[in-house]
Amino acid sequence: MFYLILAIMLVLFYIFAAPSHIKGTMNLVASVFLLVGLFVFLLLGFLQIIKSPPELWLSIGMVFVGIWAMHDIHYMGRSHKRHNKIK
Asked: Which terminal CB of the chain, N or C, has fewer other CB atoms within 10 Å?
């Protein structure tokens, strides 16, 4: 609760009372704070993905191999066999 009140006070100071040379510094600090927060959320999301069951990873691998096989079959060379025609 203390940090929430402190954050509200800082935002109000930024909006109403901060001089322009301090606003530049506060913008930089806020940008770094948002970047670090985004990095932490991405890391936590990646850790949650790692915890997923092995069946999910197996099915993703099988889908990848299946798509790769379809791609190879589609671009395989076509045989040009000449049929013996009756003359």
From this structure: C
